[in-house]
Amino acid sequence: MRNSAPVTIAPTGTISIIAGASSGIEPLFALSFVRNVMDNTRLVEGNAYLEAVARHEGFYSPELMEQLASVGSLDDLDVPDWVKNVFRVSHDIDPRWHVRMQASFQEYTDNAVSKTINFPHDAAVEDVAEAYRSAYTLGCKGITVYRDGSKAEQLVADFGVMGDQEQAVQKLSAGVREGLDHQTLLGVTGSGKTFTMANIVQEVQKPTIVIAHNKTLAAQLATEFKEFFPHNAVEYFVSYYDYYQPEAYIPRTDTYIEKDSSVNEELDKLRLASTTSLLTRRDTLIVASVSCIYGLGDPSDYFEMVAHVAVGEEYNRGRCCVS
Predict the structure, then answer these.
(1) Which residues of the chain form beta strands (DSSP E)?
(2) What residue spans of 58-185 are helical by DSSP H?
(3) Residue ranges per domain, the chain?
(4) 251 DSSP 8-state letter
(5) What is the pLDDT of residues 121-150, one digit of tens each?
(6) Which CATH architecture has domain 165-304?
(7) Which of 25-34, 120-129, 139-148, 267-276 has the lowest mean pLDDT?
């Protein structure tokens, strides 16, 4: 039959950006966000309606919009309660109301209505099951569920990819999936290569090692990746030597120089933390210097030293800590 579905709600993000509106029937994901332009200028863009209300009520300030871009929600900011109640974002809304919102539009729409049901990080399987049962009972044709942090590698940033970065992320991610041994990301200093790499890590969803030329650069990259992936195991793996002098012999003077070294215990702990994360977690990103090419031994040796413990169980310390 022609025109069997004359009523639909376009969910696409492209249309919403052009029209300056939210996509489909989705609540706003954020009320304020930051765009980083090529000269490293930060442009804070806020919701036009919220900004108009804030100016009218006298509580607008650039600092407020910066804070909002950082935390995402008005809940913990110093604004009137009635404003918080009106300007709710996706993660402020109970999942049950997400389903009911979709159902209220579905009743009068022929095509399936697109809607994301946002769950907090601590949502249980039963919570998701209840959302599906509720959607079926209320007449929804389908729902999309997203639990915060459900991706092993979840990138957290106040800005998104720009310019050629999006194309680079897609092409390099495809190359990783195809098993290409070598790919090159071109770009001058300050063009956002680290952020591009972070987006590739999120896209590919695999444990990752980033190798830097030296300890200093590795430390800088580790700090940046920890900011991008605050919920993941981002580790720092470099040589634990503060000083290392290999043994040597100088024939001309018949001089023998003994091997000498100084081990940094804190760096050794970080190396062990890297190894532990790699053996126990799927969301591991290790930033290393070239020292990572030297083996640490057989992984089975590490597993033999693992003591599995569970909440509520009792263990004999002597039995668990046998050397």
Answers:
(1) 32-36, 42-46, 116-119, 144-147, 208-211, 233-237, 241-245, 248-250, 255-257, 260-263, 284-288
(2) 62-71, 81-86, 95-106, 125-138, 165-177
(3) 13-147, 165-304
(4) T
(5) 889 999 999 999 999 999 998 888 988 877
(6) 3-Layer(aba) Sandwich (3.40)
(7) 25-34
